[in-house]
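Late entry, evening session. Most of the bench is empty. Finally got around to the prediction I had been postponing all week. Sequence below, unchanged from the version circulated by S.P.
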Amino acid sequence: IDFVDVFVGRIKGGLGVVGTISCAVFGSITGSACATLSCIGSIMFPRLEAAGYPRGIAAALMSNASLLGMLIPPNSTLIIFAWISGQSILACFLSTVLPGIMMTALICLVNCWLVRKNPNVKVTDPPKGRARFNLMKQRGFVALPALMLPFIVLGGIYGGIMTPTEAAAVAVIYAIPTGMFVYKGLTLRGLWDSLVESAVTTGVVMVMLYSVMMLSRLYIMENLPGKMLGLFRAVSENPWIILFMINIFLVVMGMLMDDISSVTLGTPILIPIIIELGFNPIHYAAIVGVNTGLGCITPPAAPVLYLGGRLGKAPINEMMAPTLWIIALAWTPTLLITTYFPRFSLLLPHIFLGTPW
């Protein structure tokens, strides 16, 4: 956080940019929006308040930024999607990289626009010349061990050196000594709690996946995908309009349940429809990634939005206006471009894996 602040701290809204980029980097490691929000938010909320950010804007910004880890892989949602749909996990990961980068840039811009006329928002005044270079070097040296982790994980996966499972193991082996001996923030008690939580989460997910196998067979026996496709075609025969309706269906599911549940229940129904319409399932993976993130900050469920309000001590009514602006100016353009320009999400899978357009 301090390292990024050297570059953008003097811009009005620069501290919000720091928080957004920090969430993107940390979220790409954890793959969990709630973990990202709890960790980065606990550091950023006091700083944002001290810099004059209204609590509603700060909480809305960090809540939305914490979801970037659902787009910048690796993340658990796409692993479950790939497992259910029978697609390559790595291809699904690559499909959301460009939408994730686009979302990061747009959230940074919306943040600067929201505070542009607020006289209470302060900017930092970093030293100039040689002193600034020395500060950059000092903070960069401190941040280097943490910054190396995403490069090791993502570079290993995308470079074909490691599978996602192996990369996760390498990340743990690297993170434990770094947290204990370099930053001295990880204790044995904290490590044990993390192991217990991971074991419980893994067990829950495995039970859900085996339940999905039975649910998928039930869907096929009842021809539920065919019936739903018939319902869509009763409105329009145009596959792009049907894809728009599928987007609405995904957003509504995300509004009513968490991301894992919506992917678990929706994928067995919708993936046969996507294939029947002639769309690439990897393109659809990117659409699912954006929609599940959008659902996590859209009431009534909105678990990440409510967590951000609690951590940032902001009532939900103060968060709604900035959240709606971020949805309109960041989430919506990203979703539309991802949906209607398939090559945007398929570019990296095509380059690295030869995925067809």
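Two things to note before I forget:
The first helix runs from residue 2 to 8.
Residues 103 and 268 are 27 Å apart (CA to CA).
Will write this up properly tomorrow.
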